[in-house]
Design goal:
The protein is of the alpha+beta class. The chain has helices at residues 8-11, 19-31, 37-41, 46-50, 82-85, 100-104, 129-134, 162-169, 190-193, 211-215, 267-271, 319-322, and strands at 54-55, 58-59, 114-119, 125-128, 139-146, 151-161, 177-182, 206-210, 220-225, 228-229, 239-241, 254-260, 295-298, 308-311. Strands 5, 6, 9, 10, 11, 13 and 14 form a seven-stranded mixed beta sheet that branches. The N and C termini lie far apart (51 Å).
Length: 335
């Protein structure tokens, strides 16, 4: 059998992200004792775990073509190349380094899958794998994605509005918040089995939105990107995308959605509340305690032009659609 490990060329995260920036975020984990020095320098997990998953640099997961209506509004945005979208990831369940998820997630089983939607609603449901791509019409949405670490991409997602999904379960008047939960399966997710690999996060990864944020038409449940089903490292088979918030709100590989009366706990807020709030709206005027949020590195094509520093926009450029949700709120207090 021919076994290859990925070549450095297209996968190396240092080519697309300023190392001082993303190492900074993980520095707090190191201070808290979750990451050893080895983890920061590049760790040992790789060659064995990736054996068999790569041939000719191509990951071996299979994706299926989706049928969807094309985005006609955002075609002017310069998209991040697919190869970068699927190889530079934050998915701590598969390792806290950018290049680990693509290596460590390729055996991830997404079919069968169950997504349960319950809580404060009249018609709770459980969806299986096929329901995710067939129960609602799929559309493409080309969105900017801004990570709290000050890098960003433009990604053509395929999915449906969370609002359309929630309408199916008929939320009741006590439904003020929506909580989301990622699969917990340490046998498949090595970061859940190893505190060091998983960055010290207490799993399962959880997220939440206010009900009006969840019902905003921009809020997307994504089942694909670049016209195909999601690769595991991007959150297969279904993940949230909230384009006006920092990337960590866009929780991956979701198994549970609950309508709640009270604000739910969220993973990064539990880990470092001073650094990561519940709202996490992209805000160039509210710096992270350890770095500026005024600008970002847009990941575009490789080579010379990969390092594109651009100004960060309030609400990531979606203010016209969402600023009203926060009228009268002090966004420095509710960061
Ligand atoms: N379950 C889970 N969801 C997650 C994360 C994670 O570690 N675990 N990382 C978040 C962060 S920090 C970002 S920036 C985005 C990255 O999405 P992408 O890899 O598809 O670009 O996923 C978010 N969703
Ligand atoms: Mo992120």
């Amino acid at each position: 059998m021919l076994i290859k490990t990925p070549k450095n060329s297209s996968l190396k995260d240092s080519a697309v992200t300023d190392e001082s920036v993303y190492h900074d975020r993980r520095n707090i984990l190191k201070q808290m004792g979750f990451l050893g020095a080895g983890a920061l320098l590049g760790s040992a997990v790789t060659s064995k775990a990736s054996a068999g998953f790569f041939s000719d640099d191509k990951p071996s997961f299979s994706t299926k073509a989706l049928t969807y209506s094309k985005d006609t509004k955002n075609v002017g945005l310069l998209k991040t190349p697919e190869q970068k979208v699927i190889s530079h990831n934050n998915f701590y369940e598969f390792g806290a380094k950018k290049d680990q998820p693509i290596e460590l997630s390729q055996g991830f089983k997404v079919d069968p899958w169950q997504l349960t939607i319950s809580g404060e609603c009249d018609k709770p449901i459980t969806l299986d794998y096929d329901d995710l791509t067939t129960m609602l019409p799929l559309e493409e949405r080309i969105y900017r994605m801004r990570c709290v670490e000050a890098w960003s991409m433009v990604i053509p997602w395929v999915g449906f509005s969370l609002a359309d999904l929630l309408k199916k379960v008929a939320p009741n008047s006590r439904a003020k918040y929506v909580a989301f939960e990622t699969l917990y399966d340490p046998e498949q997710m090595p970061g859940q089995a190893s505190r060091r690999l998983g960055g010290g996060i207490k799993y399962p990864y959880v997220e939440g939105l206010r009900i009006d944020e969840a019902m905003n038409p921009l809020t997307l449940m994504s089942v694909g990107l670049y016209g195909k089903t999601l690769p595991p490292q991007n959150g297969a088979p279904i993940r949230l995308v909230v384009p006006w918030k920092y990337g960590f709100k866009s929780i991956k590989s979701i198994v549970a959605i609950k309508l709640l009366e009270h604000q739910p706990p969220t993973t990064w807020n539990k880990l470092a509340a001073r650094e990561y709030g519940f709202y996490a709206n992209v805000n160039p005027n509210h710096d992270h305690p350890r770095w500026s949020q005024a600008s970002e590195r847009r990941i575009t094509s490789g080579g010379l032009f990969a390092r594109n520093r651009i100004a960060t926009l309030p609400f990531n450029g979606y203010g016209d659609e969402v600023a009203d949700l926060y009228r009268g709120m002090n966004l420095s207090k509710y960061y």
